[in-house]
Amino acid sequence: MSISVLRVAALLLTLAVVPAGICNAQALSGTASGRLTALDADGDGVLSRYEYDSDAALAAMDNDHDDRINPAELQAFLGREEDGAESATYRLSVVDQNGDGELSDEELRRGLGIRFTSLDSNQDGNVDLAELEAGFGVPLVR
Question: Are 9 and 118 contacting, i.e. CB atoms less than 8 angstroms apart?
C-alpha cells in the first residue's frame, strides 16, 4: 500500500460520517462504541458501505450548503483541535486531489471508500466494533 493511500486512510480514520437520518455532527458520540451505535442504520451491530453514505457525510459537514467541505467545516465537524493534532487544513489537503483547499463530493466519496476499506481489516464487507476501535482516533500518517 502506498504512503499516499495510507495517508488518505489515516485522515479518514479521523472523520466521522453519518447515515442519512442524522444531519448534525454533534449527534455523534466521541467513542467507537457510541459512533457505531449512531452510524448503524439497520441495527445489525456492524457498519456496511451503505452506512458510509457520502451524501449523508456531506450533509453533516457542509454548514454553508455549497456541496463542498472547507477547512472550517471540517474543523467544526471534528471538534476542538487537540494539542499535537494535525490541523483541519492539513487533513483536508491529504485528500484534496485538485488542490483547491476544499473537498468536492467526488473527493469525499473517494476518501470515504478508502477509509472503509482500511477499517474493514477482515475484509468481510462490514466494520464491526473491534475494527472501529482499532482505527478510532488513529493519528494521521505523515
Answer: yes
Give mean pLDDT, residues 103-117: 86
* Greater pLDDT, 27 or 38: 38
**Which amino acid, residue 46?**
V
Closest by CA to 11, choosing from 76, 74, 104, 54, is 74
Closest CA to 73 of 44, 117, 108, 34: 108
d(CA 124, CA 84): 34
Rounded distance between C-alpha atoms, residue 128 and residue 100, angstroms: 34
pLDDT at 116: 87
Domain spans, the chain: 3-135
Quickly state the pLDDT bin for 5 (edges 50, 70, 90): very low
43: cell is 441495527
Report how far residue 59's alpha carbon sits from residue 47's, in angstroms, rounded to the nearest whole number. 19
Does the pLDDT at position 98 exceed 70? yes
CATH topology of domain 3-135: Recoverin; domain 1 (1.10.238)
- Give, as one character, the DSSP assignment of residue 100: S
